[in-house]
Amino acid sequence: MPIEQPAKIDQTLQDANLQLAIYSATGRLMAKRKDAISPDVCPDYQDLRTQANLVKKHTIENLDYYLEIVEKAVAARGGKVVYCRDATEVADFVLKLAKERDARLLVKSKSMTTEEIDLNERLEHHHLEAVETDLGEYILQLAHHKPYHIVAPALHLTRYDVADIFAEHLSAERETIPEKQTLMARVALREKFLAADIGITGANFVVADSGAVVVVENEGNARLTSSAPPIHIAIAGIEKLIPRAQDLAVFLRLLARSATGQPMTVYTSFLSGPRRGGETDGPDEFYLVLLDNGRSKLLADKGKRESLYCIRCGACLNHCPVYRKIGGHSYPWVYSGPIGAILSPQFMGVTHDPWLPFASTLCGACAEVCPVKIEIPRILLELRGEVVAAKTREKSNRWERLAFRLYAWAARHPSVWSAMGLAASAVAPDVPAMLNRGPIADWLSQRDLPPLPPKTFRQLWREREGTGVR
Amino acid sequence: MAPRVSLFVTCVVDQLFPKVGIAMADVLERAGCIVDFPEGQTCCGQPAFNSGYRDEARGMALHFLDVFRDCEYIVSPSGSCTAMASHHYAELFHKDPARMDEVRRMASKVWEFSRFLTDVVGVEDVGARFEHRVTYHDSCHALRELGIKTPPRKLLARVDGLTLAEHDATEECCGFGGTFSVKFPTVSGGMVRTKIDSIARSGADTVVSIDSSCLMQIQGALSRAGLPIRTMHLAEVLASR
Ligand code: SF4
Question: Which pTM does this prediction carry?
């Protein structure tokens, strides 16, 4: 029986233009990644993955230790670490600071962590204007869309869509040439950068020993966001820590290659604290917000805590045959694709969207490309077990459970098993007529069944052995 | 000494593609193996395991371990079912150290058919003849859980008259995924249509794989699309003369 699933899935499947947009955009990213990790340009790619996995494992398992270190390092450079338990605490902190400094306008660079806590909506609610400055995020903000992809947030929009959005919201002529669209955004955003009171960035990595926030990007907007306004707030999940600057090399080489197929991003900024005496650029104040929002709960779960190793490269989305069909808006949370499928149930509870861990063929493409080697299919399987356990507790899977128990029972009784097989093949000729109902009808809406053979293998084998025919 | 092979034919082959099992037995015997079929075998438990019913899967795994305990080699016409026994049983019994020894022993004895031929028996030319343009579908579990990429291609390369025409999406999932295709029929349908588009572009008249369930999915979509391309298990190609 088809499982209850969001209507968005079939809507996306039926939208031929959108299907093409998703498939070709992810396909391009796949091809670029493949070139960027090929042995002639990146001979140590697999070693890098192993090392990245080990560094993450070590950091996550000793997170309390590194959190203390980073707190001291940030303070030593004149900044301040702010721990926030959840979305409300982050919003409260930003609002309070804005009030104290009489700030009205914020600029933001791309950050999935702030998407996760709906920061913009929360600030808007209190009449603070927060402007996204990454081109893709800016387009989405104008159109009131959620990110479609963790790296390429506007992946679902064509340049014609963007032309419509700009024409409507920037009261400009309809412009379909991407370069010109970029210029339009640039003009609008320049003003914001110069007038902004606070800049908010995310963090790709937080280096514990030096207290530096590392942000990688291609547009230069994060650099401006963190240096033009007088206050810089970096918001990072606690899992973004890595121990030392020298560990960064591994991740910087992997991240851009996995994400966009670049050897390195255009900009890699090391942002550590406010401007010091003698420096010409930089903010007057620097805050590093370290967000928990459920992460410490994951940390306690040995079997699945590796979900926190994720560096948000998006490779698993691009390579996921399911994401490539259902797109980013079919997922229940801002994290889509395979990583979303393992994060969302863990953050929101497995009963929130019980279909999600099942929306996978377990093809393993995600784990194959994940630069930090998260075993996504294994975690999906564990989550499936948890969904079943929850359903069993609330007794909402009685029939399914009964079916699996009967089936497992039969499998332990070979005579019953083969009798069932014989019975099934005896009715084989009548099967087509029996198929117009139930789950098989749904299955047959997409494809044909093979003609059912009149004899099982068991029967053929006995005949073969009996007659000695080879 | 001739390897003693016990066939593990899988539910799908037993019930839906029995000729694949016979073809596999024929090829193995021609390659010099002594073949038997333990009649007590049923299902490896993968459908239950993949659906989150771990207790039920554990019961089935115990039965599997019992049936095949004393076998020398267990050979299966499926990467997916092989991977269940060789890789996933460990996830079912990791809290049971006594059982884990047995699980590990079993893991070293279960082989997927094509790799068994190339790596254990050490044959690539099984004397087959098949005059067709063939494309090979990498089934996901064989490719990514067992790392099987070259064995079936080596075997196909030595089939007389056969031309191998790879399709561009050879490593892309066909969208079957067992109960996935029942729970998400439309997504699964979308995935297999992408697959057959790529297959059609290759110009092949036959799609070959080492997993019958993928082939069932692909054949179903080819037939629905009215494309004159057929599917065959590698064992059937290798048994052709
Ligand atoms: S799970 Fe792995 S592949 Fe997916 S986004 Fe995170 S780091 Fe990248």
Answer: 0.94
